[in-house]
What does this fold into?
Amino acid sequence: MAEIENTPELVQGIRRQGEAVLASLVGEIDLHNSPQVRAALLETLQREKPKRLILNLAGVPYMDSSAIAVLVESLQKIRKIGGKIYLTNLQPRVKGLLEIARLDAIFVLTGSEEEAMAK
It folds into this structure.
């Protein structure tokens, strides 16, 4: 696994594992800090061009619509290179938000990073 440098504190442990890039998001993601998350994710997608982006959301108790927009934009970018986004370890509030917005149908939701790697 190769560790990737220059990540903001909300995006931690970005690392490459085969054709996948794994990252952990930590903290509440809202209008004030979602631009940092966006920049980190889009830069990673541009540089690494992974077939799967696995985002561990265990450390994200809350996200607002701006965070959802970042995830959707990242999904659009990765789809252009034939990839998918896997969201793992969702806390109930975040999972509920994705389900209400019916985004659970466009992202792959898994219980763990290992499960996402196996799919």
